[in-house]
Design goal:
Elements: E1 3-4, H1 7-29, E2 34-40, H2 44-60, E3 63-69, H3 75-87, E4 93-96, H4 106-112, H5 124-131, H6 140-151, E5 160-164, H7 171-180, E6 184-188, H8 195-199, E7 204-207, E8 225-228, E9 232-233, E10 239-240, H9 245-248, E11 254-255, H10 262-282
Parallel strand pairs: 1-11, 2-3, 2-4, 5-6, 5-7, 7-8, 8-11
Antiparallel strand pairs: 9-10
Helix pairs in contact: 1-10, 2-10, 6-7, 6-10
The structure holds guanine.
Length: 283
Amino acid sequence: MAILIDGKALAAKLQGELAEKTARLTEETGVVPGLVVIIVGENPASQVYVRNKERSAIAAGFRSEVVRLPETIQQHELLELIEQYNQDPLWHGILVQLPLPKHIDDEAVLLAIDPAKDVDGFHPLNMGRLWAGNPVMVPSTPAGIMEMFKAYGIELEGKRAVVIGRSNIVGKPMAQLLLAKNATVTLTHSRTHHLAKIAKTADILVVAIGRAKFVTADFVKEGAVVIDVGMNRDEDGKLCGDVDFDAVSPIASHLTPVPGGVGPMTITMLMEQTYEAAVRSVK
Ligand code: GUN
């Protein structure tokens, strides 16, 4: 049976350490890390994520603000608001929750955020830095997965890693971070031919394809480390990942549960990046 990678426990530990580091920073420099989260419209999943981010920021000892904007807001109004936060030294992290309504251009919004405050790591400059091998701000989900590898002593150097899913938020930055640790990386997606056969070559398999229980026993080599980024509902309405947990657990050496795996780490890493941005602001 696979060893469970307990993201919830690891996130709680890191979050405790972060609160201590933050208290020290504030005592020594007077700086309180500040995170502003901007949410447009009423997407229920986004509302939950934003509430959790706010809770986590407050627990870490940060200054936290959530700006809730109506669905009808015009793009130029949103851009003007972002510019105000760019200019205000109280805020070290600015995050615009995605998805945005259709009349707003995501790219224009991500470009408007000061790259030094882009704690999501979605600004093209930060994405480019990651691809060039000089990461500054890294998307939180893959950053959290890298922390899991570290905490569980999972060696990456020279290993064969397969990433399923090529989103800008998870798949692409994940591939880069694995490459930076000298893994041999294959980035696959929903149109990849012979996907199960390729996945089965992996020592490290990261799945972020957004389909409930997509990865079955056929995709997994004996002893592989399997990371499940999915968050779906199964046919009974129960929360489940992109990996068929019961089928894969007897084969994998390590496996992340859903919930309680990757999810809690994502928010903690966002807080870490905000803290780091605040530290850089006083250097
Ligand atoms: N929507 C889903 N995941 C994310 C994320 O990590 N950051 C932002 N800004 N929006 C999201």
